[in-house]
Amino acid sequence: MAEQAGLVAEPREYLVTHLHAHLDVFVDGEQIRVPAGIGIAIGLAGVRDEMTPDGTEHAYFVDTCDVPCLSPLHTHDPDGIIHEESRTTNHPPYMLGEFFTEWGLKLDASCVGEYCKPDALIRIYVNGNLFEGDPAEIPLVKHAEIAIVIGQPPDTIPDSWQFVGDQ
Ligand SMILES: [Zn+2]
Ligand SMILES: [Zn+2]
Hints:
This protein has one helix at residues 96-103, and strands spanning 17-27, 30-32, 47-51, 58-62, 73-74, 81-86, 111-112, 115-116, 122-126, 129-131, 145-150. By secondary structure, it is mainly beta. It has one domain (17-150). Strands 1, 2, 5, 6, 9, 10 and 11 form a 7-stranded mixed sheet that branches. The longest helix is centred in the middle third of the chain and has 8 residues, at 96-103. The chain binds zinc ion (2 copies).
């Protein structure tokens, strides 16, 4: 997870840097869940396994682990919010490619997971604008809304996300 992406895992949350971006993934117009617990060592002591408020899915939170169990780049809930919570300030933004490495999915100029051009139609949007470069290099800046659209697009490409609070 964190190590493969070149990030340093911690045994608890540090909120010196605390910001959020949002990722939507669509395949033929259907929303694909971004899993909860990416970047979190689920199952280790100190990782809380909770249910989402509607009781249908798991969410993961970290109290204090005996060993590093939390990447500074992670998801708590299956809501597409990417959390960036680290003990350092003013570091360059994390990259979408690092997040996909933690997720265990391929992401480069040709492929998203098992979907590859030219067999698959792949379009990437940042804040509703078509992104033409390598999506692995999209910086996860505060409140970025990233949409990965594979195949038939959804009716609406999201251009923002209603983040709660200031982070
Ligand atoms: Zn967190
Ligand atoms: Zn957060």
